[in-house]
Design brief:
There is one protein chain. This protein is an alpha+beta fold and 470 residues long. The protein folds into four domains: 130 residues, Membrane-bound Lytic Murein Transglycosylase D, Chain A, CATH 3.10.350; 45 residues, Roll (Membrane-bound Lytic Murein Transglycosylase D, Chain A); 87 residues, Immunoglobulin-like, CATH 2.60.40.10; 168 residues, Glucose Permease (Domain IIA), CATH 2.70.70. Helix content is 16%, strand content 31%. The protein has nine helices and 29 strands. The strands form seven sheets. Strands 17, 20, 22, 23, 24, 26, 28 and 29 form an eight-stranded antiparallel β-sheet that branches. Strand 23 and strand 24 form a beta hairpin. The longest helix has 14 residues. It is globular. The two termini are 20 Å apart. The structure holds zinc ion. Zinc ion binds next to loops.
Length: 470
């Protein structure tokens, strides 16, 4: 919200005419509309031209005057016309489906994005589209089911096969194949919206590209009740649970140390008749830009692999089951009295050393440390069931709460634990007292959040409700 207000302010301040550029009735080539995070250098690199060429084509004397909304002529593309806009590729889209939706030739899309092979298109990618003002994207689309025909699809949607052939640039009405996604001249987007096997009626992956150390969300609507869903993201199997609206949701943490790059997202459906269908596409994982903490001096014993490893394995086994019951509802609440004051954030790269500097251990900060020391109360951030309450060597007095659907909270270093294993807790309930037990440099509350076996940035769960709505 704050960002959008700032952007508006920024736009208001800069609401001046676009900078001087070659004023002709028909611009020589397509125009690129400058967006918030653009730089001249980035735009030039994107279109494979030099900054000087870009400046010359637009008669720009001072490159520092670039503002949001400016229209830049991109040299070397004089044969194209329209506006070049950036879009993030949603999961399930192909070069062909995007080509049809925006009425841009596949060859043009490949050229604009320097794509050599259609398989290079991945979910979360920034793609450049060429849009013509008088040709908006088609409003609806559908796919031809197994055994279905173009004629049936046309009749169902109040159209005819020849219109669909023309809209979708098919060689003939015979050229539409089962599984093909076709655009419709009218209708609502509730028609089967994706280019996936017929078991998947709709699929949405939130927050693409996925930032390392955050929670990915996959929401699927299935065509047939009784369909079993599964899948994989990076290297974690997905667990799907039914949401209130009947769609299925998988929440999955992406590890904070995952190298930024492309990883598979695979969805599998086993139909009630036992047939199975699957779809896989690469998705982009980007950096969380986590900072490097100063060396942390701790008791040698707590960074001894013989001590650390069994404790990590114990925790992993504790948070492995994904309970089908979802105990929490909406946004989590801060577990500390200092709800917006932190000594250390999630994801910080950390190196622990022993006092004699003989032993070291490198990792990342798996949770957030709240301000405030000994004696302060700790509150449950959401409803759940206590699955562990006891002493650990590295984490000290620890409590782990199962919130359901594979989501768990951990609270370390307590001086006092006020709940018992098996106890049902409610959001806001006092569950313990802040202390300095275990591997610590001072008394504080460390809270961490696990989502299907992976620790994620808990602050995201204090800022928004998971799962995100359909
Ligand atoms: Zn911590």
């Amino acid at each position: 919200m704050r960002k959008s207000i700032l952007t508006l302010l920024f736009l208001a301040i800069l609401a001046t005419p676009t900078p001087a550029r070659a004023q002709t009735d028909t611009p020589p080539g397509p125009v690129y509309i400058v967006q918030a995070d653009d730089t001249l250098w980035g735009i030039a690199a994107r279109f494979n031209v030099t900054v000087d060429e870009l400046l010359a084509a637009n008669n720009i004397a001072n490159p520092n005057l670039l503002s949001i909304g400016d229209q830049l002529i991109i040299p070397g593309m004089e044969d194209l016309a329209g506006a070049l806009v950036r879009e993030t590729v949603p999961f399930g889209e192909t070069l062909r489906s995007i080509s049809r939706k925006y009425r841009v030739e596949e060859t043009t899309l490949r050229r604009l994005n320097r794509i050599i092979s259609p398989t290079e298109l991945f979910a979360g990618a920034d793609i450049i589209l060429l849009q013509q003002e008088d040709e908006p994207a088609w409003p609806a689309r559908a796919n031809i089911t197994e055994g279905g025909t173009l004629l049936e699809l046309a009749v169902l949607n109040g159209s005819d096969p020849w219109t669909l052939k023309t809209i979708n640039s098919l060689d003939g009405t015979y050229a539409a194949l089962p599984g093909d996604i076709l655009y419709l001249p009218s209708g609502s987007a509730s028609a089967v919206p994706i280019g996936m096997p017929s078991a998947f009626l709709a699929t949405e992956v939130s927050n693409l590209p996925i930032v390392q150390g955050t929670t990915a969300q996959v929401r699927v609507s299935v065509a047939q009740t009784g369909t079993e869903l599964g899948g994989l993201l990076v290297d974690q199997p997905l667990n799907f649970f039914e949401d209130e609206d009947g769609s299925w949701v998988a929440l999955q943490g992406v590890h904070a140390l995952t190298e930024p790059g492309l990883y598979p997202l695979r969805l599998q459906a086993i139909l009630p008749d036992g047939a199975s269908q699957s779809f896989e596409q690469m998705v982009l994982v980007t950096s969380g830009y986590y900072t490097e903490d100063a060396l942390l001096e701790v008791d040698e014993n707590t960074i001894d692999p013989a001590v650390m490893q069994p404790e990590i394995e114990f925790l992993l086994s504790l948070v492995a089951p994904a309970s089908p019951q979802k105990y929490w509802d909406g946004i989590f609440i801060g577990p500390s009295v200092y709800s917006d004051c932190f000594n250390s954030y999630f994801g910080n790269r950390r190196t622990y050393v022993s006092e004699n500097r003989q032993t070291s251990y490198s990792s990342f900060h798996t949770g957030i440390d709240f301000c405030g020391g000994s004696g302060l109360p700790i509150f449950a951030p959401a409803d759940g069931v206590v699955v562990f309450a006891g002493a650990l060597e590295v984490r000290g007095n620890a409590t782990v709460i199962d919130h359901g659907w594979g989501v768990y909270s951990g609270f370390w270093h307590q001086t006092e634990i006020r709940v018992q294993e098996g106890e049902r807790v409610e959001a806001g309930q006092e569950i313990g007292v802040v202390g300095s037990t275990g591997r610590v440099t001072g008394a504080h509350l460390h809270w961490e959040l696990w989502v299907n076996g992976v620790q994620v940035n808990p602050l995201k769960w204090l800022a928004a409700a998971y799962p995100k709505g359909p």
